[in-house]
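call fold(seq) -> tokens
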Amino acid sequence: MLYWLAHALEPKLRLLNVFSYITLRALLATMTALVVALAIGPAMIRRLSLRQIGQVVRDDGPQSHLKKAGTPTMGGALILVAILLATLLWADLSNRFVWLALAVMSGGGAVGFYDDYLKLVVGNSRGLAPRWKYFWQSVIGLTAAVVLYHLARGPSETSFYVPFFKNIVLPLGEGGFVLIAYLMIVGMSNAVNLTDGLDGLAIMPAVMVAAGLAVFAYVSGNALFAEYLQVPAVRGAGELMIYCGAMAGAGLGFLWFNSYPAQVFMGDIGALALGAGLGFVAVVVRQEVVALVMGGIFVLETASVMLQVASFKLTGRRIFRMAPIHHHFELKGWAEPKVIVRFWIISLLLVLAGLTTLKLR
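ret:
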């Protein structure tokens, strides 16, 4: 909105030309989302507390988590409001990727909201049945994938790129592209949700991955930079830098209240939405492999659950003391803040490793 206003007034006030720069608007979106999250956070937490929408803690989990029972949950709504407002204020709303990103994120948030609502308000401990949760996630992922394929303006937007190798490009037909995009969006959505088990554990890696993807979005959207760095040029992808900036700012604002000991938890409404949004951006900029590297913490958490389930079904034995793997380290005696910070450090290293692929090709 403000981008359009600045563009309309630019002939009369040349100073407004600065708002044509994506980098400036991305920084402004980051700050806007951060301020919005900090401003509305206390009121939202009070409202959730008054409605007694609090966390239910598993009896078979780490005993240190029992004290978290009743902590306000569904705080992910705070993140979504901040992202939506900042993106709508600073992004070019004629850009197709912006609206698709917001739609995918909102769709994931809607599925997560209903799941949280059933668990925390209705009192259904199972929440939304897994098959229905996966069904609606699949609808969102498949719809986004098909729309992206048919809106593509060239083979660079639908091919598969292997990092570190500038000449390995695999053309994908509609089936291949849709499958990869679907797996990326739905998989990342569930991976972030699995990681969201400790105070601030999921949100900070999400912030860092969003920042890393913002760099790829900017480079992909700039034909000169894309050619120089040998990354796929995707016309219009640069505007997703504003969306990623808003995600990073909103995440930092949420972390203010979610850091140990947490005043509020994200809930599925936030985790499913953030993961779907990150997966969508990775697909648009054609950096699925790099996104999996940068989001390695999410991949590790998901893999630990899959291995635990497979091992128990096949052998009757567990690989980890408890899955996801962050609980394994807790049960080994690591204090919760130590697990969180160490996972953050690993996440930072992985994001930096992903960014190196910009030059090492």
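The chain has a mean pLDDT of 90.
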